[in-house]
Amino acid sequence: MAEKEKLRIDKYLWSIRLFKTRSLATEACDSGKVKCNDMNVKPSKSVNIGETYEVKTVARRWTVKVTGLLHNRLAHTEAVKYYEDLTPPEELERMKFEASSFHTGKRLSKVGRPTKKQRRDLEGFMGDEEDAE
Questions:
Q1: Do residues 61 and 75 lie in contact, with contact meaning Cβ atoms separated by under 8 Å?
Q2: For 52-88, how does the pLDDT look when each residue is reduced to its tens digit (9 = 90+)?
Q3: What pLDDT does 87 receive?
Q4: Which domains does the chain have, with CATH numbers?
Q5: What is the pTM (predicted TM-score) of this model?
Q6: Which of 68, 91, 127, 133 has its CA 20 to 30 A from that of 104?
């Protein structure tokens, strides 16, 4: 049973749902995006209750304190019980600002592509090249 108590940081970050896949969590550790006490962490590092980690994901920077060891991925409502979010308020404010300026890919109304009427008017203004021949 003592073997079950060891938990790798990459598996822990995946199980508490900070990363979508375990390989993304491993990659984040390898590229220096996971730190403990301002030191980069290897993916194989064992997690202990009470440790605090700084994690940089695509969406935001997290500061999490381990409150329990979670070996399997659970629903988000259950997973949040295994860590404490200590992210500074200014980071959360920055995230709100970025979310408000997030581009969804949809065009704003009346901006971009011309309407059918506007295209007809443009064709009339430019002259129909087919009629000129």
A1: no
A2: 999 998 878 899 999 999 999 999 999 999 999 888 8
A3: 84
A4: 1-91 (3.10.290.10)
A5: 0.67
A6: 91
Residues 1, 30: Cα–Cα separation, whole Å: 29
3-state DSSP call for residue 11? helix
* Burial bucket for residue 1 (CB in 10 Å: 0-12, 13-18, 19+): exposed
Two tokens at 11?
């598996």
Report how far apart, in Å, the C-alpha atoms of 36 and of each of 6, 46, 52, 105, 106 are.
Answer: 17, 12, 6, 37, 40
What is d(CA 13, CA 46) in angstroms, rounded to the nearest whole number?
Answer: 12
- Which two three-digit tokens encode residue 100? 């408000």
Listed in sequence order, the DSSP H helices in the chain are: 9-15, 22-30, 76-79, 89-100, 116-126, 129-132
Q: How far is CA 6 from CA 3, 14, 40, in A?
A: 6, 15, 19
Q: Which two tokens stand for residue 102?
A: 């997030």
On the question of pLDDT at 33 being above 50, the answer is yes
